[in-house]
Give the backbone structure.
Amino acid sequence: MLVVKLVIFAPLAVLLLTSQAWCAEQVVLTSGFRIRADRHERLGARVKLYTANGEIELAADTVQSIEVEEYVAPPPAPPAPPPTPVSPPVAPAIQPKALLDQAAEKYGLPPEFLHSVARIESAYQLNALSPKGAIGLMQLMPGTAAQLNADPHDPLQNVDAGARHLRDLLLQYGGSTHKALAAYNAGAGAVQKYQGVPPYRETRGYVEKVLRNYQRLTQTASDGK
């Protein structure tokens, strides 16, 4: 009987004999048929093959050769890019003049009147700061803002509180714009003390400027209709 030796191609013979998981084997039979095995063992005159479906034992003389099939691991997949953070949509900031229009409608004030106060107080500037500490668009004093439970640095709260304060002053003085503006500028205590616009140059100048601008804006709005 012709005994066919197992042919294992060097230098991978050692790997095959130690059954490394990184290699597979093509077992070529004398009939020309091929069997793919994970590894094999030589058991005297027989050869045991370990395949994906189980074990197969063959007579050694039916095996012509065993070829090593090198396994090349595919390159690792590139890591998935981190998800792009989705920022919540940012609502466009409302312009100061639009805030004034909204507050005027809310508190039943002529928008021209409220605009005149804001223009003379701060020229519509949100970051304006008076020498006395009045803050922003409607130039609220910190104490007045605290009484109105408003943050004077927030444009919406600043305008809302200023309009509400003017509305309350107009109601307090029976609709007198002179007294309401004087109290807005110098405080209600000064108006009460002098029973009207106090004789302060700054306050009188302020009242005149606001009312002059109010008349101009009212006339412009009337002409535009």
